[in-house]
Amino acid sequence: MAAEFEQFHSHSGPKPWPVVGNFGGFLVPSAIRKRFGSKAEGPAKNAASVLTELAKVYGNVYSIYVGSQLVVVLNGYKVVRDALSNHPDVFSDRPDIPAISIMTKRKGIVFAPYGPLWQKHRRFCLSTLRNFGLGRLGLEPCIVEGLTNIKTELLRLEEESGGAGVDPAPVISNAVSNVICSLVLGHRFNHDDQEFRSMLRLMDRGLEICVNSPAVLINVFPLLYHLPFGVFRELRQVERDITAFLKRFIANHQETLDPNNPRDLTDMYLKEISARREAGDVDSGFTEDYLFYIIGDLFIAGTDTTANSVLWVILYMASYPDIQDKVQAEIDGVVGPLRTPSLSDKGKLPFTEAAIMEVQRLTTVVPLAIPHMTSETIEFMGYTIPKGTVVLPNLWSVHRDPTEWDDPDSFDPTRFLDEDGTLLRKECFIPFGIGRRVCMGEQLAKMELFLTVTNLLQTFHFRLPEGAPRPPPRAGAFWPDAGALPLHCVYKPSMMSQRQNQR
């Protein structure tokens, strides 16, 4: 591979360090860098923004090494679109990344290799989720039910905080996860269900271990996964606990399945397994084991990205009170105080939508798309990229592309509005990705994001703690230092009056 790629690498990309490659510093967890006085912490020092800066030196297509693995980085909207939309048969595969492959066995939807089996499962999941309301108004009551719990819980936490403020992350994450649970597992958990809360904490912890602990070194030295101590042992335990939780639900579905009355995606998948086996299609790839990984993909992907998008919007509204006031004035004018916002209001709230989209653009919760891999050798942008090369689309660079966005680092919702205040749909706005690997839950995420943000801003005014600085956007950061930066959820006057009248 190195010999094949020598011409590419010698002309484009920084020189790698031995063993650790170009991103050795990012393979060292932040806690360790802090311990030894590293100054590499901060909003500008993360992989996505560094890769964007490198594009200014080496061009929008260049190569780096992560450990000994050669990676081609794609930057800017035109390059990313050309690769993923115009050459999808070549750029839609997934590489074998040790930390991911160990835990997913390369099954499911998100991390599975591109091919007939992946295509069959993606089509099945999309069709099934649509049947259960994905992207349609039928799912709205399920989302709204969770919003009632969010508002009640935030108010309770604010009142109990004694003026210290609230970390909204657990409350938001709980509600978002419950929507996925309804679609996939046919079950809603109470917001105070301890098993459910424990599972959400486990998923958060597993993600934290994978991205910000010595466990990231598994991608360079895979045998580290099996070490019997520290975060390596903890990661295996988290994996076992999540597996046990999900497999209990699958077993319960197998025992209670009524083929004539499927309740959710799990029932539909089990029904599909039976139908294919009865038809003699024993090698279809539809198995109980594969179902487990699909549920895991949908559960985790359908919670973290949406919940963090909501949290970023709340943080930006608290950081830019003038924008928050304008959004709330639009919601009050269209919806009023006597009913809650609904999806039917979406077209009547262009500034609100523009503000949400601008936060998504600036924060890009998945700044580096999940790595792709070329399935065949291709001539691309003047370079020969061999089959089996890892390709990293930099979505952060797309949303910071100065050829597509004026003053791309500024927060300006009006960039998504025309002179008449009508919402603009920009092709270069791709928070859910692009091409055949575009996020399967895009429509659900948009519904949840709009309904959650509008309902919360109709009810509350959010503000930062006294004297707290305005946090900058951080590529790939999850809810930024939530415990250290609580927000105040203040009932708006009109809603306070309504609440008092209801007593």
TrEMBL record:
Catalytic class of the enzyme: oxidoreductase
Example GO BP: lipid metabolic process
Cofactor: heme
Molecular function terms from GO: heme binding; iron ion binding; long-chain fatty acid omega-hydroxylase activity; steroid hydroxylase activity
UniProt keyword list: Endoplasmic reticulum, Heme, Iron, Lipid metabolism, Membrane, Metal-binding, Microsome, Mitochondrion, Mitochondrion inner membrane, Monooxygenase, Oxidoreductase, Transmembrane, Transmembrane helix
Residues annotated for heme binding in this entry: C439
Protein name: Cytochrome P450 2U1
